[in-house]
Design goal:
heterodimer; A: mainly beta; B: four-stranded antiparallel beta sheet; globular
Chain lengths: 110, 114
């Protein structure tokens, strides 16, 4: 059973607006949560992470929010740029192992 | 500084053939991982090696074997390929097992089994 879920396969946003990508998880023992970005024919690249003891982490245009009671995290991209168009994976770590969601394809429309 | 390299980039196998996917890293990371990515399934962990000399099963290890040859290299072997193993395979590394460390991924190997 999938422990990390991304229920929106795709999202389209106008350039300059906010993109919000969502992720849900089931295992309350996860210790870190991460977001990766993936372009076609390339490996995923790390974007931002958050410890399970925090509720927000910010890095430039990217902010990740963690709601432990709801077992939900989200990635906000403000402002969105055409170069942000990619597939975004959320992942959760438990010690040595990582569990990935199925990805959300973001399209930023110029 | 190449980071994480994977060979080959593409491979076509017939059912029953064997092959080894190679992964090498020059980042001096202790932990290495093998994932497969299938449409609609995200990345699923096949095997990982927390440090040189150790390997452990992930979510989907059946049909695969691994070897941590040294600190730099981690190979994935398919002894008898099956069409269900058609996938994109990614190798990843991490500075240390556990803790606030992200993974660094190679470019992937696209494998088709006919």
């Amino acid at each position: 059973d999938q422990q990390v879920k991304q229920n929106s396969p795709s999202l389209s946003v106008q350039e300059g607006r906010i993109s919000i990508l969502n992720c849900d998880y089931t295992n309350s023992m996860f210790d870190y949560f991460l977001w990766y970005k993936k372009y076609p024919a390339e490996g995923p690249t790390f974007l931002i992470s958050i410890s399970s003891i925090k509720d927000k982490n910010e890095d430039g245009r990217f902010t990740v929010f963690l709601n432990k009671s709801a077992k939900h995290l989200s990635l906000h991209i403000v402002p969105s740029q055409p170069g942000d168009s990619a597939v975004y994976f959320c992942a959760a770590s438990l010690g040595n192992q990582f569990y990935f969601g199925t990805g959300t394809s973001l399209t930023v429309i110029p | 500084n190449a980071g994480v390299t994977q060979t080959p980039k593409f491979q076509v196998l017939k059912t029953g053939q064997s092959m080894t996917l190679q992964c090498a890293q020059d980042m001096n990371h202790n932990s290495m991982y093998w994932y497969r990515q299938d449409p609609g399934m995200g990345l699923r962990l096949i095997y990982y090696s927390a440090s040189e000399g150790t390997t452990d099963k992930g979510e989907v290890p059946n049909g695969y074997n691994v070897s941590r040859l040294n600190k730099r290299e981690f190979s994935l072997r398919l002894e008898s390929a099956a069409p269900s193993q058609t996938s994109v395979y990614f190798c990843a590394t991490r500075p240390l097992a556990g803790g606030p460390y992200e993974q660094y991924f190679g470019p992937g190997t696209r494998l088709t089994v006919t």
